[in-house]
Write a structure and sequence with these properties.
Layout: H1 43-53, E1 65-69, H2 75-92, E2 97-103, H3 110-121, H4 124-127, H5 138-152, E3 155-161, H6 170-176, E4 188-195, H7 200-203, H8 206-211, E5 215-219, H9 224-232, H10 247-258, H11 262-279, H12 286-305, H13 310-323, E6 331-332, H14 333-346, H15 354-366, E7 370-374, E8 385-389, H16 393-400
Parallel strand pairs: 1-4, 1-5, 2-3, 3-4
Antiparallel strand pairs: 6-8, 7-8
The chain binds adenosine-5'-triphosphate.
Pfam family, one: AAA_22
Protein name: ORC1-type DNA replication protein
GO molecular function: ATP binding; ATP hydrolysis activity
């Protein structure tokens, strides 16, 4: 590098050192754990979680718990915070509480849940054991887990996030019965299952239903005022004076319009700051907030669609075309199928049968990309189904056009 390419302080001008917008952007990360005084509207719920976990302070088995509620209603946050507070209380009683957080969206098989749990709790200096990444049978992973639990903790709190994504609920039965079946003798286990699906317990197999005694807790969504307070509490992420007056009220109002999702509200605020920063602006304005809302919706939607096959995207594209730009429009399977035949033809793709298209629609419904209702003859009898988008058609279209093949339709 020549001296011309560096500024007076020897810094490379290719990079930016001034940060006019953010003071500490990490505060707006979803994984950031706010302090107990910055949690809004969850006192009652947190105290119910605490009640269930309370026996752990004395080394006894906690009550297992299911927490339900829509996305961004503070389920994971409350479960983690209460568990951490329990951990420090228990320490005063000389009881060692370990906490494991498992994302069942990623670890959805029995073996991967057990392996992840064992490695999160394991302290090789106490157990004298390692948990290998691969190579053991599920039974062997269980054996190591029981030893780890008995040697490394008095009580383990297992938080199973997105529990409805588990492929097999056998793991729930085995974990919840570990003490009773003498798999663990010196320690106890408490399970907190978290899900967006309130009817999840109905999906459990009969074996688990009858054996897994638990309490249930429902978290309501936030209203605009609560979202506003949640965002106000994270204002320190920005430099003083950077946020114009309308920014927080607008970001919270936009997030409240959907279903009061704190994750969305925080995302919008963070993206608004980033867009302002990219533009080289000194302040964040309501225009930045609106642009951020569109961006965060498109990002989230694109995540939902990640890994979806082009045929599914073609089916979804057909639904978008049939809505005529209206999010609330309900379209029959039959209309989607007729549109799909043209789309598949334009894309030079194989044309799937109507039955297969119906199955793809069901998958999209399962992924919460669309909402399907089957009238008359019951599920699987596609012709009577109607389907609608859960996201703005423009956004869905924009995300679909990111697929190189679908983009040829423009
Ligand atoms: N009451 C609250 N006060 C402050 N921040 C909150 C509150 N509730 C949620 N948040 C923040 O919103 C984000 C999403 O919350 P959390 O992950 O707990 O939601 P969730 O209900 O578990 O959602 P999901 O089902 O999508 O996992 C996190 O960054 C969290 O810190």
């Amino acid at each position: 590098m020549t001296s011309d390419e560096t500024d007076g302080g020897g810094r490379d001008p290719l990079f930016r050192y001034d940060q006019p917008i953010f003071a500490n952007e990490d505060i707006l990360k979803i994984s950031h754990l706010p302090g107990p005084d910055k949690i809004v509207g969850r006192d009652e719920h947190m105290s119910k979680v605490a009640q269930a976990l309370n026996p752990a302070i004395f080394g006894r088995e906690p009550t297992h718990l299911f927490i339900f509620g829509k996305t961004g209603s503070g389920k994971t946050l409350s479960a983690r915070l209460v568990s951490e507070r329990l951990q420090s209380e228990a320490r005063r009683e000389d009881v060692n509480v370990e906490i494991a957080v498992i994302d069942c969206g990623e670890q959805h098989t029995e073996a991967s849940v057990i392996k992840t749990l064992a490695s999160q709790v394991n302290d090789p200096s106490k157990s004298g054991m390692s948990i290998p990444e691969r190579g053991l049978s599920t039974g062997d992973y269980y054996n190591r887990l029981w030893q780890v639990l008995d040697t490394c903790s008095d009580v383990t709190i297992v938080i199973l996030d997105e529990i409805d994504m588990l492929r097999d609920d056998e793991v729930l039965r085995k974990l919840s019965r570990a003490g009773e079946n003498q798999k663990i003798v010196d320690s106890r286990l408490g399970i907190i299952g978290i899900s967006n699906k309130i009817d999840y317990p109905e999906e459990l197999t009969e074996r688990v239903k009858s054996s897994f005694a638990h309490d249930e807790l429902v978290f309501p969504s936030y209203d605009a005022n609560q979202l506003r307070e949640i965002l106000e509490n994270r204002k320190d992420a920005f430099k003083p004076g950077v946020l114009t007056d309308d920014v927080i009220p607008l970001a919270s109002a936009l997030a409240a319009q959907e279903h009061g999702d704190a994750r969305k509200a925080i995302d919008i605020l963070r993206n608004a700051g980033r867009i302002a920063q990219k533009e080289g602006a000194d302040t964040v304005s309501d225009d930045h907030v609106r642009a951020a809302k569109e961006k965060s919706e498109a990002d989230r939607f694109s995540e939902l669609l990640e890994g979806t096959a082009t045929q599914s995207k073609a089916v979804l594209y057909s639904l978008v075309l049939q809505t005529g730009g209206r999010k609330t429009a309900e379209v029959t399977t039959n209309k989607i199928y007729r549109q799909y035949l043209t789309v598949a033809d334009d894309l030079d793709m194989d044309q799937l049968s109507e039955r297969r298209v119906q199955e793809l629609l069901q998958e999209l419904d399962f992924l919460n990309v669309i909402q399907s209702e089957v009238r008359g003859r019951g599920r699987g009898q596609g012709v009577h189904g109607t389907h609608r988008l859960l996201e703005d058609p423009d956004i869905v279209k924009r995300v679909l056009l990111r697929d190189s093949r679908i983009s040829t339709l423009e």
